[in-house]
Write a structure and sequence with these properties.
By secondary structure, the chain is an alpha+beta fold. The protein has one domain: Orthogonal Bundle (Arc Repressor Mutant, subunit A). About 60% of the residues lie in helices and about 15% in strands. The chain is elongated and about 50 Å long. The model has no long low-confidence stretch (mean pLDDT about 90).
């Protein structure tokens, strides 16, 4: 597995469009690095973002059932 993903590849992994990936980067929700003219997203940043989403969903679910 490659250590860095393009914006397109990150979108495919997250199941969202490139514009959403760019928004997540802009908003500071998804870490990215710039190499030359390319904006790349580390796999670890994608994993961390997914973990945060799952954690938030779990917390919201626990609050809703309390």
């Amino acid at each position: 597995m490659e250590a860095l993903k393009s914006v397109t590849e990150a979108g495919q992994r997250l199941g969202v469009k490139e514009t959403m990936v760019k928004k997540l980067i802009r908003d500071g929700q998804l870490l990215s690095v710039k190499i030359g003219d390319r904006r790349l997203i580390p796999n670890s940043a994608i994993d961390a973002y997914i973990e945060r989403l799952v954690g938030e969903a779990t917390s919201e679910r626990e609050l809703a059932t309390a």
